[in-house]
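hiii, so i know i said id send this last week but things got crazy w the move. better late than never?? heres the sequnce for the chain we talked about at the cafe, plus the structure i predicted for it. fair warning i was half asleep when i ran it
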Amino acid sequence: MELDALDKDIQRQNRLKRFVNILAFACVLLVSLPALIGWISCPTGSLYFGIQSNFDDQMVYAAWMRQAMDGAFLFDNRFAIDQQPGLTLHVFFLLLGWLAKFVGIAGSMTLARVGLTWLFVQLLGRFVISMKVEVFRAKYMLLLSCFGGGVGFLSWERFGQETVNAPAAVKAMFLGLCPIDVWQPEAFVFPSMLTNALFLAALCLIVIVLRCVVDCRHGWGPAIKGSIAFCLLMNIHSYDVLLLSLVAATFVIALVFQKSMTGVWLARLAVIACGAIPPSLWFLHVLSVDPVFQARAATLTYSPTFRQVVLGLLPGLGLGLYAAFTSSDKWRRGAAGLATVVILALVVASTGQDPGRYFMTWAPWGLTTVVMVLAGIGLTKKTRNSDGPEIPEQEQHQTMWTLLWCWALVGLVAIYFPSLFQRKLAMGLVVPWAMLASYGLAHVLSKFDRSTRNLVATLSLCLTSGSSLAWFMREIYYIRNNVSRTTVQSVYFSRDVDRIIDELNIIKGRKIVLAMPGVASPVVEMVDEKPTVTDFKA
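okay and structure toks below
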C-alpha cells in the first residue's frame, strides 16, 4: 500500500511538472509578443526601448544600468542635478547593466522579463507541488495565480484610474475609480510579466523566501537559502521585506496556537530574518547621508481605496472565503465570518476614501491587523484524522494552508500600513487568494460530472483572466499608436535621440541634461474610416 501511494505521488508530481513547463512556455511566449511586435513595427531610423508602461520608473532603472555599463558599482540618481555621494547599491540592475554591455539596455530588460517569467512559473510550480494537493486543484492554482485578476475589465481604461468610458451602473458600483487590476501591475502576476522585470525578480524572491519559511522546519539548508533570498529582496525591493515580516509573524503566531511551532524551527526563521540586516544597515546609511535619496524615499505612494482593492481581487477573494465557509469546523466558519465582516466594513468605510491620503492611521490599522491575525488563527485551526496523528502529507498541507491564509489576510491590510510607501506592499497579493480560490472552486465543482466540471472550470478561468487579456491588448494598442501609458512619452524615440546619446557619450564625467516638461501625446485613431486625433491629459 505504501509503495502504491508513493507511485501515485510520483505520477502526480511528474504530471504537474509537465504542466508547469507548458505553462512557463506559454507565459514566455505571451510576454515576448508585444516586444517582438514593437521591434518589428519600429519605424526606420527610430529607437524602441522595449516597454510601453511605467516609463518614468523604467528610465530610472535604465540610468542605473547605464552606470553599471560604464563600470560603476554604486549608483547615483541621474534625474537630479544635486551633488550626490553616489552610494546606491542595486544588485539586480548592476547585473542587468553588465548584461547590457552585450545586448543593450532594451535587450537586457526584455531578456530579464522573459527569463524571470520562466523562473517564476517554475518556482511557483514547485511551491504548489509541495502542497500535496490533487492535480486538478494544483493546475487551477497555477493558472489563476498567473492570469487571475478581478472585475476591472468591466471598466477598462487605457489611461488613468478613473472610469471614464464605463457604463453608468459600473461607474456607480466602482465609485468612479477603476479596480487595481486595471492599473497596479505589482499586485498581479501577468501584468508584472508584461511590464516590469524588477517586479518579477521580487516575486521570485518572495516565493523562495516563503518556501524556505516552511521547509526550514526540517533542516538548516532552507534557512540559509532563505536568508540569502531575503538579503537580495531587501536590496532590490525593500518594501516587500516589511510585507513578508508581517506575514511571517502571523504565520508563527498561528503555528503557536496549533502547537506546531518548535524552538529549532523558530531559530531557523530567525536566521532567515537576519539576512535582511546587512542591506538594511546600508540602506539606513545611504538615507542618512544622501539628500537626493531621502527625497526619493519620501515620494508619496498612497494605496488605492479599499473598494478598488477588493474589486481587483474579487473572484479569488470570494471563492477563498467560500472555501472556508464550507468547512465542517465551526472555528473555521466563524473565522471566515469575522474576516468577511472586516472586509465588508472596510469596503463601506472606504466609500468616501480620499486616495490621496492615508485610509487608516496607526490605531485603526493596528486594530484591523490584530483582528485579521485572529481570523487567520481561526481559519488555520489544525484538524486531525479520526485515526490519530496527522500523516506527513497532511502536516505539509496544513502548514501551507496556514501560510496562504496568513499571506492573504495580512496582505489585505498591509497595504494600508501608515507610511508613504504603503502602495508598494501590494506585491503579488493575487497569489494567495488565487490559491485559496481553488479550494472554493473544487467544492463547487464536486457536484458535477467530469465534463461539466472541466467546462465550468474553464469558463471561470476565462472570466477571472479577463483583465490579464485586457493588459495584453492594451500593450499592443500602445505600440500601434506610439504612445505610452503615461501619455507623455512615445513608444518609439526619434533618430535625434540616438544622436544626442552619441554626443553625450563623447563627453567625459557626469553629465546633466535638462528637458522641458512633458505634454500629452495625441493618438491618431480611425473613426468611421477617417483619422481623428484623441488628446489625453498629461
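btw The CA atoms of residues 360 and 416 lie 7 Å apart. thought thatd interest u
miss u guys!!
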